[in-house]
Design brief:
heterodimer, A: about 210 residues, mainly alpha, 2 domains, three-stranded antiparallel beta sheet, 3 strands, B: about 500 residues, 23 helices, globular, cytoplasm (chain A), signalosome (chain A), COP9 signalosome complex subunit 8 (chain A), CSN8_PSD8_EIF3K (chain A)
Chain lengths: ~210, ~500
């Protein structure tokens, strides 16, 4: 099926449709070819390219494709990659790669982002918080409240009770005597991986063919 | 014009009108169509071709559509005297029609015109390269290869695809092709299965990819090595070290006569780095590599071996010196980026190694024990925490109570909780069960193919007994002894 032409409205429609991260990535990657055919020096197309590449960049982060996001920053036209928003994307990518939580929240919340990408910026912040919460739950046996708050980008100066409530709502326990939170490990099934089955089928087919 | 259109649409694809035709009849139809289209003077004028391209569907009449596209490209090339006419450049009309075709063609019809199909794919790659946008060809060629389904046969297009992926820095796009096992070269036409119809849907696809089918240019030893070398580089760019090591291992294990090729030596250097970055150690070369070849690798890659030795001995000063001394070598070999990552990997494996000696350490202890770590006291906790949180280090962290700001790093026997462990065991059991089912099904199929199933063997034994008793009783040439009995026919019915 032919894709509708890439335009600011179409891009907004794709972003606001709220697809799963994988679907968002798939939809936007289908538009990369159209984006390649636009001129980065034409002022009317420059905005569209900036919005597209920012959204595409976030779709990589939302699907945890950090290495490919780095590759994307290399194939963005130079005229676009020099723009402030793309420079901010690079800063964010470096902070994500280095696991600098405080910096990540600061970049997401305080630096300017193109208008149409705002929903994705907020979506990534929520995604990153959820991911970090799972990582903390499985990595820490006990954690100080300030540290836990920093990982989630919460204000450590906020009312302690509110922060504690946020974590206890996730099944964590609060030890008021020791002033420590006890995370509850999150059990997740490993991702389904068909590669072993596929390889086995191919090897067995090969043996069968060679034998006959 | 209507006669010509009638010819063009005379053999629709199987799901669109030819489903009830026998293979033999469909084969005739397609061969007749090709013979007609190849007749001299049958090519329509430019204006007509555009009309026909609009009139027919590339998915239903793939053979005819491909023929028209090729004629149009040739006409434009002759008219403009350039390899990539404007119309064929990305965004042009012909480009768009080619994209439409490569994303929807019928793989059965295309089996008859492999050469022409490959030429069209080559044109797409050249067109994308002519405007310095190789990425435009990457997804299209990947989709075309997936659609064609080469079933594990290596072709020159695989090499072209991986080269374009490296040129365009678009690595993930080609993984669906690189992740598949390639275990055949196009088969020798002489040995190709005779009497098999190209339109048959029940034969293994490998039968159709022969050295004369045209789907691949002539392949050389170098092409094979280059493909795996470039595939290794794609995986390294994505930090998939195991897959990278596997691909590079294929290159360094390639059979050699007298000399070792440069590409094999380059692959060895990258293989050393991939193993350092992925596993923190220098592996022995695969058993397939002859000792004299290993010696050649080692003598031509001395800086890399020294680097790996310093890494393995956890000698940070020496490692830093080796990296500094070899800068011109890393740059010349285009391995600077990989060598730069060695510092980070060194720190990681240093911390991981602590878990083999200690069961718990405070962060100041970690810094003291890993004194050669390139991280300072400020960064070490952040680094260790990120290793634990990303599951690269199997350990648990715990903060001390009260006002102490110490963080304890514990290396439990299992870093997983009971529930998590159970979930993983359950998952692995399911995985093993599926693997056993796959093997079991394949064994049954192989037995049928090789006629060694239990029932077959019983019938053979029975036949031999009968033949023996017939001979003894003087009756020769009975039906059962020839294997022509009812039971035999019934059993062998599906086995062929």
């Amino acid at each position: 099926m032919d894709l509708p032409p890439l335009s600011l409205d179409q891009l907004s429609a794709v972003i606001t449709a709220g697809p799963t991260p994988t679907d968002l990535y798939t939809s936007l990657s289908a538009y990369e070819e159209q984006a390649c055919l636009l001129s980065a020096t034409d002022p009317s197309e420059k905005d569209l390219l900036l919005e597209f590449y920012t959204a595409f960049f976030f779709s990589h982060l939302l699907t945890d494709q950090i290495c490919e996001a780095r590759a994307l920053t290399r194939r963005i036209p130079r005229e676009i990659s020099r723009l402030d928003a793309m420079q901010t994307c690079s800063l964010l990518l470096r902070a994500v790669w280095q696991s600098k939580h405080t910096e990540i929240y600061k970049i997401l919340r305080e630096l300017p982002w193109p208008g149409r990408s705002q929903p994705l910026v907020q979506r990534y912040e929520s995604y990153f918080q959820e991911k970090t919460l799972v990582e903390m739950s499985n990595s820490y046996e006990t954690i100080r409240i300030a540290a836990a708050a920093t990982y989630l980008g919460l204000d450590p100066a906020a009312v302690e009770g509110d922060i504690i409530e946020k974590f206890t709502a996730c099944g964590w326990k609060w030890d008021s005597e020791k002033q420590l939170l006890h995370p509850k490990p999150v059990v997740t099934a490993p991702p389904k991986d068909d590669s072993l089955q596929n390889e086995l089928s191919r090897v067995m087919a090969l043996i069968s063919n060679q034998g006959s | 014009m209507s006669d010509f259109l009638a010819y063009l649409t005379s053999a629709p694809s199987r799901p669109h009108g030819s489903a009830n035709i026998t293979d033999k009849c469909y084969d005739h139809q397609l061969r007749d169509l090709i013979a007609y289209l190849k007749q001299p003077g049958v090519a329509p004028s430019t204006a007509d071709i555009n009309g026909y391209l609009e009139a027919i569907s590339p998915a239903v009449h793939s053979l005819s559509y491909l023929y028209l596209l090729r004629i149009r490209i040739q006409q434009l090339q002759e008219k403009t005297a350039v390899g990539v006419p404007n119309d064929l450049q990305p965004g042009g009309t012909l480009w768009n029609q080619t994209v439409k075709f490569l994303r929807s063609f019928d793989p059965i019809q295309i089996r008859y015109v492999g050469h022409e199909w490959r030429e069209l794919v080559d044109s797409v790659a050249n067109a994308a390269l002519s405007v310095s946008k190789p990425i435009l060809a990457v997804k299209m060629i990947r989709d075309a290869l997936e659609r064609l389904n080469t079933a594990g046969v290596f072709t020159s297009l695989h090499l072209m695809l991986v080269k374009l992926a490296l040129l365009s820095s678009s690595y993930t796009y080609v993984l669906p092709v690189l992740d598949k096992l390639l275990c055949h070269f196009p088969s020798d036409t002489q040995n190709a299965h005779a009497g098999i119809l190209l339109c048959s849907e029940h034969e293994p696809s490998t039968v159709f990819f022969t050295d004369s089918s045209g789907f691949s240019a002539n392949l050389t030893y170098r092409d094979h090595l280059q493909f795996y070398m470039y595939s290794g580089m794609v995986y390294m760019a994505l930090k998939k070290w195991d897959q990278a090591s596997h691909c590079l291992g294929i290159v360094i294990s390639a059979p050699t006569a007298n000399s070792v090729s440069k590409i094999m030596v380059e692959a060895y250097k990258k293989w050393v780095l991939a193993n350092l970055l992925g596993h923190g150690k220098l592996f022995s070369v695969p058993n397939l590599v002859a000792p004299h070849v290993t010696r050649v690798y080692q003598s031509l890659s001395k800086p890399y071996i020294s680097l790996a030795e310093a890494f393995e001995k956890r000698d940070f000063q020496r490692l830093r010196t080796e990296i500094s001394l070899g800068q011109t070598i890393w740059r010349a070999d285009k391995n600077s980026g990989l060598v730069y990552q060695v510092f980070e990997a060194y720190d990681k494996f240093l911390i991981i190694k602590l878990g083999k000696t200690f069961s718990a350490l405070t962060m100041p202890d970690v810094l003291q024990r890993a004194s050669s770590c390139s991280k300072g006291s400020r960064d070490i906790e952040e680094f260790v925490v990120s290793l634990v949180m990303t599951k690269e280090l199997r350990a648990k962290l715990s903060h001390s109570p009260g006002n102490e700001t110490t963080t304890m790093l514990r290396f439990p026997l299992s870093s997983q909780s009971h529930a998590l462990r159970e979930e993983h065991i359950r998952f692995r059991l399911i995985q093993k069960e599926a693997a056993l089912n796959t093997i079991s099904r394949a064994i049954t199929q192989t037995k049928i193919t090789l006629e060694t199933s239990h029932e077959n063997l019983q019938v053979i034994a029975k036949n031999q007994k009968l033949a023996g008793s017939s001979e003894r009783s003087g009756v020769v040439g009975s039906t059962e002894a020839d294997g022509g009995g009812d039971l035999d026919e019934d059993l062998m019915g599906d086995g062929r």
